[in-house]
Every structure is written in structure tokens, then in C-alpha cells.
Amino acid sequence: MAIGVKVMKRPVDETSYIRATLKGMSLTFKHLFRPKVTMQYPEERSAPEPERGAWTLSSRWRGTHRMLTDEQGRSKCVACGLCPQICPANCIKLVPGEDEDGNRYPLIYEIDEFRCVFCGYCQEVCPEEAIHVGVHYENAEYSRDRFVYDLERLSSQTHLVSTLWDPTDPKGE
Amino acid sequence: MIDAILLWVHLQFTWLTPEVKGMLLAAVVKMLLVFTVVMIGVAYSTLLERKVSAWMQFRLGPNRAGWGGLGQPIADGIKNILKEETLPGAANKVIFTLAPAIAFIPALTLSAVIPFAAPIPGFDFTLPLLGRFVHAAPVPMVVADLPIGFLFVLAISSLGVYGIALAGWSSNSKYSLLGGIRSSAQMISYEVAMGLALIPILLVSGNVSFGAIVAGQQAHHIWNILPLSLSFLVYLISGFAETNRLPFDLPEAESELVAGYHSEYSAMKFSLFFIAEYANMLTIAAMVTTLFFGGWDIPFTHWDETPGWPQMLVTGAFFVAKVFFWLYFFMWIRWTLPRFRYDQLMSLGWKFLLPVALAYVMIVAGTLYLVDGPLGLAERPAARLLALTAVSWACLLFVVFALDRGAVISGADKSLQRKRAAARGPVGAEG
Questions:
Q1: Cross-chain residue pair B59–A38, CB shorter than 8 Å
Q2: Closest Cα of chain A to B205: distance in Å?
Q3: Using a CB-CB distance cutoff of 8 angstroms, which residues of chain B are in contact with residue A38?
Q4: ipTM score above 0.90
Q5: Residue A106 pairs with which residues in a beta bridge?
Q6: What SS3 class is residue B120?
Q7: pTM for this prediction
Q8: For site-directed labelling of B145, which of A8, A22, B214, B361 has its Cα 20 to 30 A away?
């Protein structure tokens, strides 16, 4: 051989060509008839509960955000500033305000979903359980500026919120 | 006006005798039929490839265009025509443009010489204006019933490598060039074994025309796979190498060479290489069918040996079914085996297939000499073939055994086997 390719010495049963080929061919032939795992997305979507022909997103899925509201429809946010503080992507813009009773509320609360890395720290750190990451994945828009979600938009989302990962219950039981 | 045109047409054809007209009609219809069937077959074997690969990987495969994905080849074709044709600045423009055609034409030409069905009876009918059409003898169902059909295939199939090598060179890209070089080395190496593997067929059938080879297999319903099994093995392996299919797809090894010789091609030029590959596959499948599996012969019946329309249709369907089985076999192997390393490829070709094919030519010739001479079976063709069958299967078993031990290519070592067995302890200890 012109170039010295190192040929490893191997036991006979590991170098069997014919047997290995036949074994592989019978395996691939059996695979032809196995049930298929393809999820045909636009027709089959994730369902909240496991059902036939659908798949279920994990309840820990961290998707686009959702702001929870109280009974009067006001956001639960008290503009404490913890979420913009912890946000590693620096994607939360918060301008706090105060009403005549001394209650703090966000004047401006915007999340740039393009910058967001969906770590879920904002939800973990929120003392009021106001901001959440959501179990949601269909986020397509026609323009880039539509990806900066303002307070109104965050409050009007209806999808499930993420349960995140609970260290005391690592398997989600 | 219309009358004038018809009269003009009529006058154009007065110089043709009915016999010439009949021959021309048969030739043109057969050409159109074969060309259409081959092109559609090629298009749909790309779909079949994608479907088979998907099913083997638990996927569904393309199923959006048309019913169950049947419109996919059409969609692919339209896409490829509409895409941008790229031309690398440093490429040799003439050869770069010509190479896809050089790869494509031989692949398609080969379909002309393969008989695909039983002959139809001669015809005699008259058309208004065009006059009488006569074809006295039965019409063989092959576009060109070449007396040297077999040699034609060997000659033309070797031309395909020019397209690939020139594409690799003219792209002026290192990956393309490597792909082209690998391809020429590989195809030339395996051409030798392929040609030698086919010589036993000539020894048995005594003729180089495909019609005679098929008729010889038909006569006693002993397909060449029985008396010439080892030829079949060698031919099949070299066929894989000739078509650049896995496990021999080194010319386009995507993990090493981007896309090999067609890295720089786009749109319809790329598509032509693709079509050429599948047309080559189709040809090899048709060759395997014709040379080793009786061509269009239907087993266990002699009904198909007389010319006739129903015979033509049924044997044609049988031929297509056989060819599709071999196409599927190509895909089956592709999605089962990994790619060879380059030195393994070369040693398989030169150190294994070539000597085996050469020895087998001698064995077949010797057996035929013995059988015809001292044993005196020359007048009993079936017994003669059965004797050859026994010898061939003995050879095949021996070769398969040797190949399986891996002594030829892979550096198998029996002592390692014993050492490992000793380390494992007494037999049955681990349950």
C-alpha cells in the first residue's frame, strides 16, 4: 500500500463481513414495518393531555412569557426590579411607577423575546408570581418589532405557565 | 388548408415502403416508451429512495406533494429548473457545463439495449393517407436489438466515469477534484472485476446478444443465478461500486468531501448528476435481472415464450417487478451499510473481487470442458447447467466463508479470538 493505513488486528467474529451485513439487512428490513414516530406538525399539535396522534409538551417547557393578573385585571407586578436585575440577557425593560396609595406598579414593562434566552430566572425570582415563562412555542410574526412584548400583550396571553424545575421534586412527581 | 397539409404529409411518405414504415413505427414507439418509462422510473426511484430511507428510520418520508407524496418528483423537478445556475469563477466553463450531460447520456443510452418483455407478433394495417404499415416478423421488445448488446453495455457504462471525473476537475475546487479522482480510481478498478464476472455468462450462453442470453435462461428455466452464482455476487458488488452507491459512495462522501464531484453544481446541472446516478442504478438493476434472473422470463411456465400481446404485457410487468426489487435492494444496502475506507475499497476490488472473478472464469471454463468432453453431457443442456450449478455453489460457499472470516481485507486474527475466549473463562460460565 502506498500510504500506510494501520489495519487493526481484530478477533474473527468482529470482522465478519457477511454475517454482519445480513444481520444489518434483516434489522433494517424489520424497521420498515415498525410504527412511525413522525409528528405531522401543522395537523398534529401538542395537546395539554397525552392523547392519540398528538404529543404533549413538558410542563417545564420555557417558552414566551406571560404576566399573570389579579381579580381586577391589573398585573400582579409590583415593579420591584428583581427580574431585570437577574435577567442574563438583559431583555426586560422596567420603568416603575407609584399610584396615590403608594402601590408600586410598572409604567413600562417590555420583554424583547429575541434577546431572551428563556432561562426562566425571571419567573424564579419574582416575589409576586407575576411574570412567568409559558408552555408555548408558536411565536411567528410578520415583523421584528412585534417581538418586543409589552405589558398589555404579556397580560393577555392565555397559554399555560411553566412549572420550571423543582429541586425538591427533580422527576416532576 | 387542412386537406393541403394532409396531402403534403401523404406525399412526404410515398417513398417509404410498408416494410420500412413498419420498422420505423415500431422503433419510434419503442423509443418513446422506453425513454418515458426510464425517465419516470428514475424520478420515482428518487421518491422510493426517500420513502425507503424514511421507513427504515421510523419516519414517514415526503408525503405533502400530491397523494401520499407521489407529486414529490415533479415538485423537485420544477424546483431544480427554477433554481439559480451557479458557475464558479475559476471553473472551466465549457467542460463544467458539458460534464453533467456526459454523465447523463451514457446512463440513459444503456436502457436501449435491454430487452424488457416478450416480443409482440408482427402487424399489418393501413392508416388513411399514411398507407400500409407492415412488420412481418415478431417485434422484439428492445429498442436496439444489438448483436453485440453485451459489449455495448460494457463500453458505454465505462464512459460514465468521464462525466464525473471531468465535473470534478473542471469545478476547480479541491473537494470536487478529490471526488473526481476517487471516482475514476474506483470505477476503473471495479470495471475489471465486473468485466471478468460477466465472462462466465458468455461461456454458458455462447452469445453476446441479450436476446440470446435471456432465451438461454428461458429454455430450461435455469436462471444464471444458479449455474453462475459467484459471478452474480461479484457483479452485484462491482455494480454497487460502478454506480457510486453506498457502501462505495466515496466520490461524494459528504462527511469528507462536502458533496464530492458535484459540490459546485446547482439547479438542473446538479439534478442531471442525480438523474444519471439513478439511471445507472436502473441499468445495473436491469442488467442483474437480464443476466442472472432470466430477464422478462416468468418462472415455471413456457407460455411466455411465444410472441403475443398478453405475453408482452405480463412479461413486461414481471421485468419491472424484478428491476424494482433490485432497485429496492440497492436502497436497502445503502441504508444498512456504512461507507468503506479508501484502502478497504481498493483491497476489496483488487485483492478480492479481481482474483475471485479470474479464478471463477477458469473454473467455469474447466467445468464446461469436463462436462461437455469426458462426461459427454453436451447434448443435455439442463444436466450440463445443473452440474455447473453444483460447482458454482461450492465455490460460492467457499468464497463467502473466506470473506466472512475477514482474512482478505480486515486483518482478522484468530489468536485474538482464542485469547478472548480464554479470558472469558469456561464455556457457558456467563450464562
A1: yes
A2: 30
A3: 58-60
A4: no
A5: A96
A6: strand
A7: 0.79
A8: B361
